Amino acid sequence: MIVTDVDHCMVEGCLWLPYTMWLVLNIVPVLIGAVLVSYVEPVAAGSGIPQVKCYLNGVKIPRVVRIKTLAVKTIGVICTVVGGLAGGKEGPMIHSGAVVAAGISQGKSTTFKKDLNIFRYFREDHEKRDFVAGGAASGVSAAFGAPIGGVLFSIEEGTSFFNQSLTWRTFFASMITTFTLNVVLSAYHGHLGDLSYPGLLNLGKFESIPYQIYEIPLFMIMGTFGGLLGALWNHVNYKITCFRLRLVTRKWLKVIEALLVAMLSATMGSLMIYFVNDCKPLGNDPIKFPVQMYCAEGQYSAVASLWFQTPESSVRSLFHDSKGSHSDVTLTIFVVLYFFLAAATFGLSMSSGLFIPSLLIGSAWGRLIGSALSRICPDCEVLDPGKYALLGAAAQLGGVVRMTISLTAILIEATQGISFGLPVIIVLIMAKWVGDFFNEGIYDIHTQMAGIPLLPWEPPPLSNNIYASEIMSHPVVTLRTVENVGHIVELLKCVTFNGFPIVDPPSSDQGEINSYGRFRGLILRSQLIVLLKNKVFNEYEEFWEKPLSIKMFRDEYPRYPTIEQIAITDDEKTYTIDLRHFMNPSPYTLQHSATLPRAFRLFRALGLRHVPVLNDTHEVIGIITRKDVARFRIWKHQGRMGLDELLITNKI
To answer: What are the record keywords, sorted (predicted)?
Structure first.
């Protein structure tokens, strides 16, 4: 409709009309998406990959895998794509896959208060996290048609502990996802049973991508350039995000900001189409919606094709169009405009990803380099601009997200260019090395800005002289083996801790560091609440369910009631609970002389949240939580490094 009006108004002199229509068509869906995210479910904002990454790392982020989040995410990403924002649907699909996997694995819905009484065995954090890993991999598989890339993504970006059985289960889930999507898409295109639609993102197929050994230095240079641009993009987005955190705090301001970016997108596109005259002849296979603008009969505006196509179609065009299809001026201006537009879009209160915008920016400057090389050596048939567009896309995306192995597999599977695997991995490694010299990947930047206690793969290298007694929380709140019910109730109301050491009465005085009794075990806040709710008191022992089983705890998972929702009479507050029946008698512990790297590896590999610290006589003197370990973070910048102590949010 806009395309037809543009060509009509070029003759009639009413270009304000298609511009106004473009604004309206951008603003309306963006308004819907921004209102949903800002007012209904804020955790659905962005791509969702940082949240899924943190969840797989062992961090429980509130509402990240709820059905309401899935609904808002689905509608929101549709609004983002329809609204013409510089965002993609691939990241939200990964988040959506994680939510679906988390919901199916529980066999019940707390939102709809429906329990199917199946899959009770999986109602615990460890099992649920494994399903989320498979769901995230399936999301990658559905988006790109890349089941192997999906498995590698789960390994590289999130999961703390990956064993052999989880690997093949995740791969099987990814393959089933690809097959199911194939069947659905074949029916959608009217060719049911024709399984040639591997993923939602269609980047086209590279029949043959020849390259010579003398091109490898060129690939390394492209990777370096991609790392520089990626680091710059991350820095620009970081500054914009800092501005948002300071000033755009109210919900209505977040909606207004999204609308302003939508208007900016339409305005930038309109101005570029109007002022840049890049006419190309219509071929045998013209673009879907050619715009004539000032071009002669039989020609179309290549600038308009970049803006009026979907970003995915534009990437495909830059990959596969013949030489000379896009002028250098057009590509240069487009790269600059879309670079800053994408940086302003990522972080809005909208459900949107950055895979496609990064691929589009990279494919544009990559094709620009390919065109320059083909002009320098016109007889070198191997210097195909489409090939360099692919490498530019890989370099730009790698420079932004700093993924290597999984991104290589994703791009190879999405383009079916297995013979081009070596150049892609060279470009991605160079982009990561160069980008890491200046800043971290965009997901890590946003995770740190949110104050989430994410643990990286390795402990800080300058922390061997930091001991458990220095980072532990003390004085620690403990419970006795046989505890008074009233004391437990008041304790849970007064503190927000989620883990309590069980101790015998203190046996000695430890001087500067207080002792809290000989350590016997550990019990969680959720377990105490379930015990209080089910009246598991010593005085009621004859009325207990025989025998007591773990089913009592799994039925309440994952949304345990608060202590205020538990009705305890004054008489019951005088009763006692023998916690030895329900505590973990052999949790992981640390000696007070253990170093920070040892504590770090314990939390990272096992996904722990609490580790009691003991003295030489096995008495608990403190407790280390995930936040105590995560607040120590190494920083690297321009060849220098140091150890920082960060602030961790109290919302998680």
So the answer is: CBS domain, Chloride, Ion transport, Membrane, Repeat, Transmembrane, Transmembrane helix, Transport
Coil vs helix vs strand at 125: helix
**Do 477 and 435 fall within a single domain?**
no
Residue 121 lies in a domain: no
CB 559: neighbour CB atoms within 10 A?
10
Contact (CB, 8 A) for 118 and 153: no
Tokens of residue 410, six digits: 């994703």
* DSSP calls for 428-482: HHHHHHHHHTT---HHHHHHHHTT-----SS--TT-TT-BHHHHSB-SPP-EESE
- Is omega for the bond preceding 547 within 30 degrees of 0, making it cis? yes
For 195-220, the pLDDT digits (tens) are 777 778 888 787 777 888 888 999 99
Phi, psi of 110 (to 5 degrees): -75, -25
DSSP string, 24-74: HHHHHHHHHHHHIIIII-GGG-S-SHHHHHHHHHT---TTTT-HHHHHHHH
Residues 483 and 354 in one domain: no
What residue type is 381 in one-letter code?
A: E
The kind and range of the H/E element at 642 are strand 640-645
Q: What is the CATH number of the domain that holds 609?
A: 3.10.580.10
Residue 611 forms part of a structural domain: yes
The SS3 assignment for 289 reads coil
Kindly report, residue by residue over 158-197, the tens digit of the pLDDT: 666 667 788 889 999 999 998 898 888 888 877 777 777 7
pLDDT tens per residue, range 557-609: 777 888 888 888 888 888 888 898 889 999 999 999 999 999 998 888 887 88
Domain residue limits at 633 = 468-524+570-645
